[in-house]
Amino acid sequence: MDIHLTPANLAFIDELRAHIDELPADATARAHEEMEVDEVDLGEESRAWLRLFGEGGWIGVGWPREYGGQGRSAVEQWLFLEEMAYRKLPTGRLGISSVGPTLMRVGTEAQKRDLIPKLLSMDARIAVGYSEPGAGSDLASLRTSAVRRGDEYVINGQKIYTSSGHYATHIWLAARTGSVDSRHRGITVFILPTDLPGVEIRPIYTQAGGRTNEVFLDDVVIPAENVVGEVDKGWAIIMMALGFERTFPFSEIAHDLEYLIEWLHSDEAPAGILDDSTTMTEVAELAADLQIARLFSMRTAWMVDQDEVPLAESSMSKIWLSEVRQRLANLALDIFGPAGALAARTVGAPVGGRFEQLLRYAPLMKIGGGTNEVQRNIIAQRGLGLPR
Ligand SMILES: Cc1cc2nc3c(=O)[nH]c(=O)nc-3n(C[C@H](O)[C@H](O)[C@H](O)COP(=O)(O)OP(=O)(O)OC[C@H]3O[C@@H](n4cnc5c(N)ncnc54)[C@H](O)[C@@H]3O)c2cc1C
Q1: 285 among known catalytic residues
Q2: Euclidean distance between CA atoms 199 and 212, whole angstroms
Q3: So what's the pLDDT on residue 75?
Q4: Gap from CA of 369 to ligand 1 centroid (Å)
Q5: How far is CA 217 from each of CA 85, 150, 175, 292, rounded to the nearest angstrom?
Q6: Cβ 377 under 6 angstroms from ligand 1
Q7: CA spacing 20 to 30 A to 303: which of 16, 278, 310, 345?
Q8: 90 C-beta closer than 6 A to ligand 1
Q9: Count of CB atoms within 10 A of residue 154's CB?
Q10: Band of the pLDDT at 41, cuts 50, 70, 90?
Q11: Are 243 and 303 in contact (CB under 8 A)?
């Protein structure tokens, strides 16, 4: 892999920035504000902004033109995600970074023609329904069932932590079509519209203040054509989608580090802190580790351009990034002292309470997308060929 961006990549970044800057500034500010508060990027303002932004294939820059993208490289799709993360602007999240790329590889032509352009226009928004109350890390034990009845399936069960489910038009659903003990050999992926009778979505609020959901499915009937790939063969599709999902952008954290460094240079920082070698070493190490995060992330995009699906590589990226995020939150608290635990809109909260929010958010990212412990197992077994 060449770790340098090409002249075409750099020109793309300039073009992307110019496109963002051309959009109405108030709409951009509202979408940004919603992201800051909600942490979920499919809210009303975000959708409105993405519709404006997305004209001309800007959301799926790396997707084929025939499906509404710009036909550029996966590295450029990654650069797009990084730019948005730096500015804290929406991207359409898992529909764009996980489900869309998977559907393009395994969906029927009809599914692709129907859903992919809608994902790019925000007319369709997808949440991911894998986890259940008794099946998180051990996803192969999921119990939500899909039973064939003529040309339809009847679905019953419960999902949990279905992020963005309350904004979604569809759920990318993992359900059991095999026998109860069939484990990963009896799971099928379905595209489930959320407006069907029997779908109930209830909120769960996280410690970071954002909303995720539990989803109850009670005799929900969907056409057999909503099966993705082959019946009982959904496990490989889920692994592929998770490989795409786990390549989180690094630049939101890089921006947070810039905020911290700016504060260290400000009058609010304790006198002499810039001469404190322990603190400065930690800041420097984080800055270096963020560059490693960038390379992990870029590698996964580069692999997609080589027609490979990253798996252990995405797990490496996910662990590294989420741990750097946690270290930054911890370091900020060490530097700020008790004031670091003051929330936004509280008098005396350093950097507007940004790092208090990070402190609550960082642990979630070590769990969401599969826990870091489980990612280490994937690296050991799938990446290094070690035994279970
Ligand atoms: C912010 C957030 C967003 C999420 N969004 C979604 C979503 O959109 N869709 C979705 O389907 N799910 C989502 N999840 C769920 C997430 O994927 C699960 O929480 C995660 O896979 C862990 O499952 P669990 O919560 O059941 O914990 P458990 O699996 O019960 O794990 C408990 C602990 O045991 C450890 N552990 C378990 N098995 C092993 C093992 N084999 N080796 C070592 N350690 C192990 C885990 O690391 C963890 O520390 C989200 C979670 C969070 C926090």
Answers
A1: no
A2: 16
A3: 96
A4: 7
A5: 33, 20, 11, 42
A6: yes
A7: 16
A8: no
A9: 16
A10: confident
A11: no
